[in-house]
């Protein structure tokens, strides 16, 4: 029976159904020992006298027919190797807990970063929308003001042209009136001069006739002379009235000249004001164009910023996809590890105490997948270094975004 158990145990260990490093090392050690000498395996529970293990002790005695012994001379594997493998397995579990904590921290950091980036993107989109609305409103107001200024400038130009036409017409009328008044004045002056000459000649003739003839004829001539003198007086009065009329006309002409000069000054003032308004309007139009150009530049800048944010959003989406894939892979690994841990079967003592392995015992079936891991201090330093690198990269990206 011992030989049968030996063959079965050797067959099971030489062809393990798991990927456990400890089982593989045990199998390799047994194969090397089998090539050199015959190996006999016996069941050694090494925890006799504990309540609950009587059936295991009885089966062990029946199977081996020998009292319990230490495992070193029977298996050919040192107790230090087994304890080292089990310690490495414990360190592996501790490292897995550290890795799980680090992954949780990374996940929380990525979630916080993602929420901050989403809030930043939403705030930037709100600001860009408000800026676009303000730009459109300013553009509409500038277009309305520009159209109003253009209409006002056109109306002012038409008014200036109309005033110029009226002034030219009034100037022509004043010139015509002035020339007619001057011609009439010269004509009246000529008539007065001629009448004066006639009166002087008639007076001389009358005086001569008075001196020569003192008869009826002289009286008649004197009466005629008086009539002529009266007529001359009437004519002189008419001439004086004409002169006064001409003076009044001259005053009116001077008044019209002054009014025309005042009107010309007003028109010049209006022209200067119109030129000032046109220049001011042109400056306003230029300023509005500059404002529109600046608004367009600002809009292009915001569009570029929005494009950069969209690119960053795409990059973050890709990173999120990669993180999700890594999370899925880690979940699969954790599920595999959990399944392997569930498949482990401890001995009765370990089940009773439920403590980490430090004593003298064996696993009854297959061990879980083990890898050679460094000590806990080195593993903790590696995890802290990776976590610091991750946080430094996240802070750099936040500074770039801000």
UniProtKB/TrEMBL annotation:
Q: Which UniProt keywords apply?
A: Coiled coil
Q: Which GO terms describe its biological process?
A: cilium assembly; establishment of epithelial cell polarity
A GO molecular-function annotation:
RNA-DNA hybrid ribonuclease activity
Q: Which InterPro entries match?
A: FBF1, FBF1_C, RNaseH-like_sf, RNaseH_domain, RNaseH_sf
**A GO term from the CC aspect:** ciliary basal body
Coiled coil ranges: 167-326
Do the record's keywords include Cytoplasm?
no
Q: Which domain of life is it from?
A: Eukaryota
Q: Where would I find the RNase H type-1 domain in this sequence?
A: 1-65
The protein's name in its UniProt record:
RNase H type-1 domain-containing protein
> Which source organism does the UniProt entry give?
Exocentrus adspersus
